[in-house]
Design the sequence.
């Protein structure tokens, strides 16, 4: 099956796929034509300079699930700084593939062919 795909570096890819990062901001309307649709997330080969992102993913900053839910609710109420001119897209229902597919990333939206047996049923 063919999907539109967007490359993310770590920790952002993991934060998106683990439902921690639920809003994507871009300087251009890259995702405008993909709202309410399925978008594949490509984890770029190049990581952060260190492995600190792993701690964020594994321990979620030491927060409880209730604390994370509370902070996510602030998205609807908060006045966010430095967002003037940025395009925001809500990300929902993230799912990991059954196994990784090696692919070269791209700067903007690109197309990836994912075998159906790798797509989670959830």
Sequence:
């Amino acid at each position: 099956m063919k999907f539109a795909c967007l490359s993310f570096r770590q920790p952002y890819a993991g934060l998106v796929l683990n439902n921690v990062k639920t809003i994507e901001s871009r300087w251009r309307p890259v995702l405008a034509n993909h709202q309410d649709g399925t978008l594949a997330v490509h984890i770029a080969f190049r990581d952060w300079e260190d492995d600190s992102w792993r701690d964020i993913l594994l321990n979620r900053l030491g927060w409880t699930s209730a604390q994370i839910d509370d902070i996510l609710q602030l998205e609807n109420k908060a006045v966010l700084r430095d967002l003037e001119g940025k395009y925001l897209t809500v990300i929902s229902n993230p799912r990991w593939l059954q196994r990784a597919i090696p692919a070269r990333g791209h700067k903007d939206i690109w197309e990836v062919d994912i075998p159906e047996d790798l797509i989670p049923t959830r």
User: Anything to note?
Assistant: The first helix runs from residue 12 to 17. The beta strands are 2-8, 23-26, 39-43, 87-90, 110-113. Helices lie at 12-17, 52-59, 65-73. DSSP finds three helices and five strands in the chain.
